[in-house]
Amino acid sequence: MPTELTLDDLTTLLRECAGEDETVNLDGDVLDKTFTELNYDSLAVLQTTGKIEREYGLTIDEDAVNDAQTPRQYLAVVNAAFSDDRAASA
Amino acid sequence: MTARAGRTAADTASQPQPTTTPPVVTGIGVAAPNGFGREEWWRATLAGESGIRAISRFEADQYPARLAGEIRDFDPTGHTPGRLMPQTDHVTRLALAVADEALADADVDTSALPDYAAGVVTASSAGGFEFGQRELQALWSKGGKYVSAYQSFAWFYAVNTGQISIRHGLRGPSGVLVTEQAGGLDAVAQARRQVVRKGIRLVVTGGVESALCPWGWAAQLADGRLSTVDDPGRAYLPFSADASGHVAGEGGALLVVEDAAAARERGADTYGTIAGYAATFDPAPGREDGGSRLRDAAELALSDAGLSAADVDVVFADAAGGIAADRSEARTLAALFGPNAVPVTAPKTMTGRLSAGAASLDLAAALLSLRDQVIPPTVNVDGPAPGLAIDLVTGKPRPATLRTALVLARGRGGFNAAMVVRVPG
User: Fold this and answer.
1) Which contacts qualify for A29-34: CB closer than 8 Å, 24 or more apart?
2) Does A17 touch chain B (CB under 8 A)?
3) Dihedral (C-alpha) B224, B66, B158, B367: value to the nearest 10 degrees?
C-alpha cells in the first residue's frame, strides 16, 4: 500500500477521472497551477477525490480539499490524510 | 419598425426585436443508423439503404425484440474533447458531433455574436440512459461512493442542451422538451418562438437520442410497441397489412434556426423556412370524444403558416408501424388532403424510430427534399394496406416539384405535433 500520493499519481488520476484538456500539458510544470488553469472544475476534483478515497481507503477532509486551489495544496491535504491513516492504524 | 411605448429609440436599438417573419434553417447536422453526417445519411436515404440490424451494443438474445437502428460508424474520441469523455453519455457525444456539423454548415461564427443572442433547445426522451445504468449498477453493487460525480447531470434530459451550450458559448434562452416522438418538432417550435417573439438571433435545435442498453431496452419493451420480428427487412412496416410494431433506433438531427433578416444580412444559404407549427394532445383513451387529434395539429400548423392543404407537396408521416395507429394516421391524411392526393413517405423505415431524434431527422429530410426536389422512399413496404388511401412513396426516391412539406409526429402518451417547412424566399 502506498503511503503518499505523488504529482504523477495525481495527474494520472485526474486524466482517468476527469479527462484531459487538449490545450493543457499535464506532464509540464503544473504543481502550482490552479485547477482552473488546468481546466478542472470542482466536479472534476470531487470525482478524483472520491476515487482516491476508494482506492486507498482514506477519508479526506472535505473542507480542506475544497480550499486546495493547486495540485501542491491538494497533495498536502491528501498526504495529511495518509499520515492520519498511518497514525490511526499504528 | 416603431419603438414600443415607454422605451426610447436608444433603448430599443440595443434590445432584441420581435419579428413576424418565419425563421430560416441555415445549418443541418445528422447522425443516423444509415449514415453519419448530413450528406452521407441523405445519400443512403435516397438509395434506400437501411441501418436496421441485429443489436450489437449489448447482449440482446434474451429480449423479445432484437433489432435496432444502431449508429456503427461513430468514434467518439474523434469528436469529443478529452475533458468531456468521463462526463458524457454516448447520446451527448453524438449530440455534440451533430451540433458541430450543424454550426459548421451554417457557417456562423458563434463567438462573434452578442452574449445571449443564441441558444440551444433540444428534445429528449431518455437522457443519458447508458451512463445512468452504469452508475445505478455501481450504486447497488458497490455503494454510493462508487457513483460518478458526473451522474449529477450526465443522465439528465437537458444534458445535450447544456453541453452544446457550453461548447459553443450559446448562452441565450435554452431548454429541453420531453414529449417523446413529438419532441423533435416541439423543440424546433420552441426555438422558433425564441427567434420570432424574443428576437433571439439563432438557436441550435432538434433532437438526438440513444438508449441502446439493457435499461433503455427494458423501458422500450415495456411500452409494448416494439416489433419482435427478427428479419430486418420485415420488422418495421408502417402502413403495411403486415405491420407488427416498430424498431427503435438511435440518432437524430440538429438544425440551426436563425432569424431570417440576420441570415440574409450575413448572406447565409438557407434550406427553408419554419413556416408553421401546432401541437395538440389526445383525449384520455375511452372518452366519448376520444380519438386522435393529429388532424387538428396538421390543420392548425397549416393555418399558422397561412397555407391550405392544397399547398402541401409532401408529407413525412409519423409512421408508427402499428395497425391501428397507421390506420388512424392514414385516415387523417386522406381526410385532410383527399384520398391518395399527396405523396406520403417514411424514411424512418431505414433508421427505426428514434424517440426525440425522429421528427428532427424527418425535418432534415423534408428540408433536403425541398433542396433536391426529390422525395426519399419508404423502404421494405410494398404498398399501403387495403383501405388506406395514401400515396405512399415506396421502393425508390420520387422526383417532384416541392415547395412545401408537412412533417407529422406522435409521441407516446398523446402528443401530436405538425410542422410546415417551405422553400426559401
Assistant:
1) A30/A71, A31/A7, A31/A70, A31/A71, A31/A72, A32/A70, A32/A71, A32/A72, A33/A70, A33/A71, A34/A69, A34/A70
2) yes
3) -90
Under an 8 A CB cutoff, do A22 and B146 touch?
no
Interface test with A, best of B77, B80, B83 (most A CBs within 10 A): B83
Answer whether residue B125 shows pLDDT above 90.
yes
pLDDT at residue B15 in the model? 59
State the pLDDT confidence band at B281, using cuts at 50, 70 and 90. very high
Rg of the Cα atoms in chain A: 13
Burial B165-203 (b: 16+ CB within 10 A, else e): bebbebebbbbbbbbbbbbbbbbbbbbbbbbbeeebbbb
Structural domains in chain B? 17-265 (3.40.47.10), 276-422 (3.40.47.10)
Q: At what angle do helices B183-198 and B358-372 cross, to 10 degrees?
A: 70
Confidence grade of residue A1 (pLDDT, cut at 50, 70, 90): low
User: Is residue B47 pLDDT above 70, yes or no?
Assistant: yes
Is residue B245 within 8 Å of B319, Cβ to Cβ?
no
Beta strands in B304-352 (DSSP E): 314-316, 343-345
- Spell out the residues 6+ positions from residue B51 whose beta carbon is closer than 8 angstroms to its own: B32, B33, B34, B35, B44, B69, B70, B71, B72, B249, B350, B351, B352
Q: How far is CA B15 from the centre of its chain?
A: 31
d(CA A47, CA A30): 19
pLDDT of residue B158: 97
Q: Tell me the nearest-neighbour CA distance from A76 into chain B, angstroms.
A: 22
Q: Which tens digits make up the pLDDT trace of B110-124?
A: 999 999 999 999 999
CA distance B307 to B316: 17
Q: Give the separation between CA B130 and CA B140, rounded to whole angstroms.
A: 16
pLDDT interval class at B17 (50, 70, 90): low
Classify domain A7-20+31-89 at the CATH topology level: 1.10.1200
Angle, alpha carbons B413-B415-B416 (nearest 5°): 145
Report ipTM (2 d.p.).
Answer: 0.90
DSSP state of A55: H
Rounded to the nearest integer, the mean pLDDT of chain B is: 94
Cβ-based contacts of A39 with chain B (< 8 Å): 83
d(CA B371, CA B236): 28
- H/E stretch holding B326: helix B323-337
Please state, in angstroms and rounded to a whole number, the distance separating the CA atoms of residues B253 and B37. Answer: 9
Helix (H, G, I), strand (E, B) or coil at A54: helix
For residues A12 and A1, which has the higher predicted lDDT (pLDDT)? A12
Angstroms from B89 CA to nearest CA on chain A: 14
- Would you list the DSSP string of B238-290? TTSTT---B-EE-EEEEEEEE-HHHHHHTT----EEEEEEEEEEPPPTT-TT-
